[in-house]
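no rush on this but wanted to send it before i forget. what follows is a protein written twice so to speak, once as letters and once as structure tokens for the fold. mainly i need to know what kind of three dimensional shape the backbone takes. thanks a lot i owe you, the record is right below.
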Amino acid sequence: MKKSWQIFVALVLLLLSTSLVSASALTDLGFKEAGSYDLGGNTVTIISWTSERMANYFDSYPPVLDRIAEAERLFNCKIEFMQTREIPEVNFNRLLAGESTYDLWHVQNKIGYWELVAGGAAYPVTQFLAADYYDILPPSFIATEEALKFDGQYWGLGPVEYRPMYGYQNDLLFVAYNKTLFEREGLPDLYELYLDGEWTWEKATEIAVKATVDFDGDGVIDQWGIVDARPWDLAVANGANMIKIDSNGRMVFNGDDPKYIEALEQSYQWWTELGVQFQSYSSGEINNTFRNGKAAMHFSTPAFGLPDLLAEMTDDWGIVPLPMGPSADKHYWTVQALNTTLIPINAKQPEALAALRAFLWQEDDISVNDFLATHVNSQEMADVLLTANFEWDGSASRVFEKYLGDFAQYTRDVQSGEKSASAAMAEIKPIIQANLDYLLNQ
């Protein structure tokens, strides 16, 4: 298996030669042909917390090496990348100063999206996009824009990217598992359990108990069953969402749903009652524990973290979806963040800006083989990764992350046994609801 996969990867790498821009890159999305837009020599500023890495992407990835210069020629503009973590403050300031007329704004559900859209700073792009624009985007992009709908309409154009994976969702979450450890401990392979429909919370608990070991009897756990199982992700895996739309079209907090309570109670069982989850909230400690072979399962491994695992982990490993909760009848995929691109409300040529973004980032730039070669090392992992990108329905465990108050602390209180799940959700509910009502003016 490993030898055939290495041959496959070698063949893939031969395909990484500079490719020509697809002639239909714009027209397929309902725009005019490249060369039909004139931005008047103005500077287009692409603002993001990852802008420096975006610029490096265009300077280092073969298929797009000349893309910036070509775009500047065809659209008669200059392109600059502005790196900042101060989103949405920078965006609002540029809007008020009249400096954003040729901006493209990269945002997330937790970095600026809701503030800018609800604050009236974003252009209603459906006014000029083709009627079927959102049907043509890659499946995971469609799911993202559905999840980010506001006031009954779409606002985002799709993401901008700083690594060769455009067309795929880089924030999808997986359970990574140490196959070397599993084999050594005589544990069932998670991919086989997943295929057989047996990958559940109950089975995860059974495996975690067997994998958690104090090897030298000194009372200190040397090998953990689980690291980084987050209750809000478990809730999605149980078919529950933190926020729902009620019969009046109002966004309401739903963390007191029985299925959500089950997730919180499962988190308590693993963390405190059974003691099979590594008790740390430090991402560095968590990641090192798994990568160094001291944990069987990492429950919060994002797609963008897979290349790092490939480079840094010595043991053999694989990925599967989050296990099914007791109230779920299938595997639900979720993400750690939702990304898209906004156009400012004062944009002078919004359609041209949207076409420019589509020209710079094209689905054809990234072949499926290219994507897989940098993210997985087996056909099983490729199956899981591609399935996730096609099946994910837009579920996000914390879609209004910046408006959740001390929700994370409340979940920690449940994990430690300081509060019951029901009491914690009853206490935080009015706080989150007030934040949602204020944000959405509902």
User: Anything to note?
Assistant: The CA atoms of residues 116 and 122 lie 6 Å apart. The chain has two domains: 2-170+338-377, 173-336+391-440. The first strand starts at residue 43 and ends at 48.
